[in-house]
């Protein structure tokens, strides 16, 4: 048989057998919930037999699937009173997935019923180490401790989870699988709070106090949706409150409280850096975020129909910046982590000098973002058991299951899975598209030299500019160079341009909101006649020749917002002090691995 036909036949057999095992597991779960334990055990046994047959034919069945079959059959044996057989199934599950929390918990239950309390206690404590906040596991450990006469300690417990917990998925008529979303993508405050997205154009300051803001959704502008607003549904106060990012203090476990200065006189000397909440809505959101029950990234359903339709590699890089590249997985997963690319001397191995791993057999896709540090997010391959949601454990304190976890460990990994499911794109194609994306950006940077030849451009601190000072960012791009050290954030920086014929810096406003670009940008008549524009709102006419030139350049190069101009400015002025020009501020609230930039290699040529 032709090798290609043989390979295609093997892939068809593998997909068919995997789908058959999934169907048997799903049917077993259904009758299990109906209380038909014997019938459920029969379905699980049939699934195990099919999986063993597939393995005998050298076809790989996902270990998570086989683990679920053994653990769920053990649950059925437990309900039937067949505790010894339940222990055997749990041992089989632990052979497939070492340290499985569900297998350890189910084995502890069966051993307890058999009167083997010491063994049950050891299994229960091992399970408690992987799930310290699980109410069921904690209660089991306490019960076993009482039976053994051990001293009890108060345990930290949380809401209980489904005792079956068997990678729930629904099988569609066409054979494809869909997964259920976990609580993270839902809004736990939906019943009591309203949320809305805004920007600094439609949610603007109207007074000197910290709460003097007003939401004006009717303002004509292109909303960036980078400000989270919230208000209580049952409150008489109908004003929208801004929810600042949660303070980055991972060791703080106490309750969030209101700022006394804001309560007393609506002012705070620490401003945006204050770690106390400005309003009750902020306390509620911060509390849920710390619990891992709410994610701003998923609050407004970024994976809805419209967003999914627009997903592409270029779109992902525009949203999350950085680039995709391959690294050696053996080195990446080692402790401590080692960043190894393909060796330039020997293309068949990685660049690790102490252990030359075969690169093509061990490569993994990684999303890399450079800022003050270099952040790496591993993108695992999409498989049938992937749960399309972010792991709540990874959001809080890191997932103990690591690569065996079926949930995404970052928002960028979640979106990559969705992109793969919708388009069928491979990791190799994603890396190639990422390279083409950066080549286009470099070409735009080269073409922008035409604009630079006639205009001098720089970004400065907006707060200092209003006070008559011109201060650029520091080397780390965290604060401005003034003594006050204002935070260097998107909403605080201002674009200034100066033509070589003039000596005065001129502010350039963001591009006027428009669904389509105009043929050309004209000068404001009021500015030309009276040197001042009296239009109430955002005037869509240029207020200076320099502003008109910049707007025209942005239109010609499809640059719709100041963030893209800022990225170009960083590349042109070499603010990032790096050769590849990929220093982009990463999106907040996304947990990623961080390594100092000084100890990593350049991303060029990966």
Keywords:
606 residues, alpha+beta, Serine Threonine Protein Phosphatase 5, Tetratricopeptide repeat, 4 domains, 4-stranded antiparallel sheet, 22 helices, Znf_CCCH_sf, miRNA binding, zinc ion binding, TPR_rpt, C3H1-type domain-containing protein
Describe the protein's architecture and organization.
The protein has 606 residues and is an alpha+beta fold. The chain has four domains: 3-148, Tetratricopeptide repeat domain (Serine Threonine Protein Phosphatase 5, Tetratricopeptide repeat); 185-298, no CATH class; 302-436, no CATH class; 444-592, no CATH class. 41% of the residues lie in helices and 12% in strands. The chain has helices spanning 3-33, 37-56, 63-80, 83-96, 101-113, 117-130, 135-148, 260-265, 280-291, 296-299, 305-310, 313-320, 329-332, 359-362, 392-396, 411-423, 427-447, 449-454, 462-466, 525-530, 545-556, 562-573, and strands at 169-171, 177-179, 193-198, 203-205, 213-215, 227-232, 241-242, 323-328, 363-370, 373-379, 387-390, 407-408, 455-461, 493-499, 506-508, 593-596. Helix 1 (3-33) packs parallel to helix 3 (63-80) and helix 5 packs antiparallel against helix 6. Residues 579-606 are annotated as: Disordered. A zinc finger (C3H1-type) spans 390-412, 518-546. Keywords: Metal-binding, Zinc, Zinc-finger.
